[in-house]
Design goal:
Elements lengths: L1 H23 L3 E14 L7 E14 L6 E11 L19 E12 L2 E12 L4 E12 L4 E12 L1 H8 L3 H7 L9 E16 L2 E12 L1 H4 L8 E16 L1
Antiparallel strand pairs: 1-2, 1-10, 3-4, 4-5, 5-6, 6-7, 7-8, 8-9, 9-10
Keywords: Cell outer membrane, Membrane, Signal
Family: Belongs to the MipA/OmpV family.
GO cellular component, one term: cell outer membrane
């Protein structure tokens, strides 16, 4: 599974390089960047919600008014640290450090509907390969307020699911959880509603409500207390615009 996903990452990156150069040369590129608060499970699979920083880096778009069609963009993600001391349910488990993920996003726009696929390689806390398949529908109520409704399927390699859902033999002895070695594949399904309200030029209030459901081997992990994984996020972002 890891080799297959890694090969797809290499192929997608190779294909995306000329496409991105052609798309961005002499054009514009913009995205929302900001900071907020996220209220979500304290670790993947937890049934306790906790507040944490929400680093906003989203709505990247090359030429927002470009015609429908296929485009490529970078894909970045950040996964917070998991400390065993933060939860009674993790006592005896190894800590997991902060993780960054870098890869590529391919999306196809057809009017207000955008379908997409992403693939990223992790570093730091995990070294697996992850990605999503999904679609979003954009609703512009006026010049200031934009809404998106979306659905996506999250996937991860054996290395990723093993890091966040697995229990080694040593961890089993120290924690009391049964040893568990999950396979990679689809690990979560998500539904989301997002909102962006531009109260000042290029400055917006951002909000997101997400419902996630852990699937397959991930959902069967002895570390998972609840397959349902809701989250609410609120923050302020600035629209960053660049021309090439």
């Amino acid at each position: 599974m890891t080799r297959i996903i890694a090969l797809a990452l290499v192929s997608a990156t190779a294909l995306s390089t000329p496409a991105m150069a052609q798309t961005l040369t002499g054009r514009s590129f913009s995205f929302d960047a900001g900071l907020g608060v996220k209220y979500s499970p304290e670790f993947i699979g937890s049934d306790n919600l906790d507040a944490s920083p929400w680093f906003i880096l989203k709505n990247a778009d090359a030429d927002r008014d470009k015609p429908d069609g296929l485009s490529f963009l970078p894909s970045l993600n950040y996964v917070g640290r998991r400390d065993a001391d933060d939860s009674q349910d993790l006592r005896g488990m190894s800590d997991i450090g902060y993780a960054g993920e870098v890869g590529v996003k391919m999306f196809y726009r057809m009017g207000e509907l955008t379908s997409y696929g992403t693939i990223r390689k992790g570093f730091g806390g995990h070294h697996g390969v992850v990605g999503e398949l999904g679609a979003k529908y954009r609703i512009e109520y006026n010049d200031r307020l934009t809404l998106w409704t979306g659905a996506e399927l999250g996937m991860g390699s054996d290395d990723f699911t093993g890091t966040y859902f697995g229990v080694t033999a040593a961890e089993s002895l120290s924690s009391g959880h049964r040893a568990y070695d999950p396979d990679g594949g689809a690990y979560i399904a998500r539904l989301s509603v997002e909102a962006r309200y531009e109260f000042m030029p290029d400055t917006a209030l951002m909000g997101r409500v997400t419902y996630g459901r852990l699937l397959g081997d991930a959902g069967d992990s002895p570390l998972v207390q609840d397959r349902n994984q809701p989250s609410i996020s609120l923050g302020v972002a600035r629209r960053m615009n660049f021309r090439f």
